[in-house]
Amino acid sequence: MKIGVLALQGAFIEHIAILHQLGVEAIPLRLPQQFDGLDGLIIPGGESTSIGKLMQDYDLVSKIESLGKNGLPIFGTCAGMILIASHISDSDIKPLGLMDITVRRNAFGRQQESFEAELSVLVVGEKPFPGVFIRAPVIEEANGKVEILAKLNNGTGVAAREGKILVSAFHPELTHDLRFHRYFLDII
Length: 188
Ligand code: GLN
Fold this sequence. Notes:
23% of the residues lie in helices and 32% in strands. It has 188 residues and is α/β, with parallel strands linked by helices. The chain is globular and about 45 Å long.
């Protein structure tokens, strides 16, 4: 199994390290021709405006869009979730539209820009998952076949799946808990 991790900006090294711990081949991707022959793709956290702009500069937007629409499993964390969404309520960036959700960037007030929360994510098991939120987005609206996988105590959606597309507002790659990545491998 070969998984590509978009390596334009942000926390891609951490995703690669987790995939290696799970015994999976993982490669950093920057050029359109590197996207052939993948079993899955991860779009990491970072700054969605920068990643979005670099995706355009490197000619990757239509490539990723068509791979996702043709069934390639894709996992987006934080900025990656923002880019996968179909709408962003507070930004002019045009997202990839691979999951029918509306997200809000930087959804937590200043004092809470970064925090950790124990999340119930039943698809990865009964034990709570350590959610690491860093200037995180939230899912404001989910339509169609989107399944919300995790919520904060106030009911806000912070992880979701639609078909083979998976997103989390938090950063599983910054924890020692491998279960979210393992779940993505199960989807693949
Ligand atoms: N706030 C960032 C954005 O808008 C996302 C932060 C993150 O990926 N940790 O893109």
